[in-house]
Amino acid sequence: GMLTVAALSKMRGEGARSRQIQALRRIVKHHPDHDRANYLLGLALGSAKDYNGQADALNTILSGGAEDEATLRQYLGIAYALQDEPDYNAAAREFQSLTLNSAANGDAWAVQGMLASLQKDTATSASMLQKALARDTRIKEESQARLALIYMESGDYDRALPLLRQAAMAPQAPQSVRFFYALCLQNSGAKALALQEFETVLSREGAYAADAAIQVAIIKMGQGSTSSAFDALVQAERLAGPSARSLTVKGHLYVEENDEVQAQEAFRDALRRDNTYAPAHLESGLLYVERGMVYEGVRALDRYMELAGEGVEASRLNEVALLIEQLKKSIGQ
To answer: Which of 83, 88, 128, 201 could crosslink 212 through cysteines, CB 3.0-4.6 Å?
Structure first.
């Protein structure tokens, strides 16, 4: 049992780690109260990024009492923060006994920063994540990505980009991080690099592949390649079905091709799927106005103004508000 584990621990590579985990699981199965085996299993599962399994192993030790409880709870807090469905509340509870001002506890700052972000307290979240990254944390890539998203929400792509670049280049970086890195590149004006990154995400057909395909379509449309843009939308809809977003982009493509009837139908289809999707109301309203259907255009643009969120630039909203005012004067409203 443990001799096999010791021998395997001296070997390198994924195969050796997998065999080590298998050996430890066999020991734990026959000796569930074997704290040393559970501890080593927890560490091995953590290094294999199986944080759900790591949390189970560490909880087994803690339920029976443990000598080095503080260290175990720190590992457990990290596991909760990194598992498939992160539980930052549970992670924060495990770190409660740790001193946040300790240089060794960047992990605690990171978890508190993640928790503040989920509670929409972006100022506190950014401050804590900055402190975590200034120290040393095993939740580094996740902290970089979360802090970068906070910067992106405020339009500060210059600060977000280096954080996302580092997080995206880490081994086994999640597809979500690669996607937001590409999005940040796109918003920073580096369209060619963004296209490469989106196409990488798309090629792996994960949870963000359909969104990546839509972004590819938007970039291709900006380059004047409507045929390639339509192809990308076909991929997006193959992966996730038509959405209000994909149909709005499709409508915009039809506008580029001067096919106003198909464009208006695409916008209608988008709104049938999600009547709260603000960009579809905007595009639909602008097209109605272009076609001389001013009353319909004003209704759609008014609805856009009702739905537009905080992420929309104030200058954009002001432009639309001014257009609505002019249109209403033209029809005597």
So the answer is: 201
